[in-house]
Amino acid sequence: MSGRAWRVAALLLVAPVGAWPAAAQTLRTLSSARQLHGDSALDVTYAAGRFRLEPASAGDLYRMDLRYDEDKFTPVRDYDPASGVLRLGLRGRSRNISPGDRRKGEMPSLDVALTAEVPLTLDVELGAAEADVELGGLSLRRVSFHTGASKSSVRFSSPNPLACDALSFEVGAAEFTATGLGNANCRRMTFDGGVGAVSLDFTGSWRGSADARIHVAMGTVKLFLPRDVGVAISLDRFLASFDRYGFTKRGDRYYSDNFSSAPHRLNLDVAAVFGGIEVHWVDNHN
User: Fold this and answer.
1) Which residue, among 181, 142, 180, 144, has the nearest Cα to 162 in the 3D structure?
2) Are 62 and 138 in contact (CB under 8 A)?
3) CA-to-CA distance for 18 and 16, rounded, in angstroms?
4) Which helix (H) or strand (E) holds 271?
5) Domain residue ranges of the chain, discontinuous segments joined by +
6) Neighbouring residues of 272: CB distance < 8 A, sequence distance ≥ 6
7) First vs last Cα of the chain: how many Å apart?
8) Distance CA 113, CA 106 (A)
């Protein structure tokens, strides 16, 4: 296997949606998979509905299970061996489409499993969709996660075996949760949020130190900080409360009591407007 990192772009777009239909749609099911064959890139494109991502079984490049309304969407399964680009997902047949009937639970869905056996650069872009993303165990060089008005959960349940250059989240009006960020092994993290409730859990198997920038326009930010990691916070807030328990202010920064002695450090740059910043000190889960 070559040492070149693979680029994985998981893109979830929602076309303009009209009124929900009164009757449930009959959804078609499509399954697809491909085994590893040397270097490649992945481009996963999805039109609407629920999205789930997880590591694939050994030897698989990807696995896809798709449920969709064939009157409104066209499945996409394109692979260009010359460029090594794989495209998966859905394409809307028209601009004015409705994903399904929420009352009947008939929403299109896409379950994708990606290889954990090669280095990945992962781009995830979601529209107004529910997302359940498990990144634990994937070999990640860089991660970019974008979502609009949605409810999203991102987990690093096990450590990333590689040193990750950057992890970024961009969230609109959403309920967003990220857990196990200490397992991401990323030296730089950024979070940009619009309106909503945000929970960021930095527990995990820390192998270095990290800088994180968190900017939220409006809403509550809950920070779950491991007690064995030294934390420093630079704070810029307007009409936003801050719980400074466990910190001592020196100059314009807040420091945890163990900042000088801790083997790993987390430097936080936090900006918040019209909301609150809650700090929860927790035992680490290694």
Assistant:
1) 142
2) no
3) 7
4) strand 265-282
5) 1-18+28-127, 135-286
6) 214, 215, 216, 221, 236, 237, 238, 240
7) 30
8) 22
Contact 57, 63 (CB under 8 A): yes
DSSP state of 164: B
Tens place of pLDDT per residue across the chain (286 aa): 444 455 554 444 333 333 334 344 577 887 877 777 654 555 555 545 788 999 988 888 788 888 888 887 778 777 666 665 667 777 767 654 444 444 444 677 888 888 888 888 887 777 777 889 999 999 898 898 888 777 899 999 999 999 999 999 998 877 899 999 999 999 999 999 877 889 999 999 999 999 999 998 877 889 999 999 999 999 887 666 787 889 999 998 999 999 999 999 999 999 887 778 889 999 987 6
